[in-house]
Amino acid sequence: MLDLNAIKNSLEAKLNKLMDRATEIEDALSAPKNADSEERAVESEGDQTATAIGEITDAEIRDIKFALRRIETGEYSTCESCGKHIPVERLRALPWTSRCTACS
Ligand SMILES: [Zn+2]
Asked: How far is the CA of 41 from the centre of ligand 1 (A)?
């Protein structure tokens, strides 16, 4: 059996961490730029990395919010694509997944 409360708690904890990371990335991206042009080039590379990490973080936040909503609606262990039951082992390994192995 799945302990939905435990899953919810761990998803919420992960969500909080991701939100913190997203805020940090935003702060880093909006930080004032160095006036020196050479350093500015380095910073711009750092910005690209930060933007990429930010996009991954946003996607993870979306997935986790979606999983939490699916717990609320009782659809958590139902594949959103084929409607079949998602195996418990899969949900344990990937608690934010919304699809069964065949549909992922
Ligand atoms: Zn499926």
From this structure: 46
Q: Within a domain: residue 98?
A: no
Q: Is residue 88 part of a domain?
A: no
- pLDDT tens, position by position, 50-67: 999 999 999 999 999 999
**Assessment of whether the complete model's pTM goes beyond 0.70:** yes
CA of 74 to the centre of ligand 1 (A): 16
Residue 84 CA to ligand 1 centre (angstroms): 6
Burial 31-45 (b: 16+ CB within 10 A, else e): eeeeeeeeeeeebee
94 domain residue, yes or no: no
| pLDDT at position 75 over 90 | yes
pLDDT classification of 35: cutoffs 50, 70, 90:
low
CA of 31 to the centre of ligand 1 (A): 44
* Domain membership flag for residue 80: no
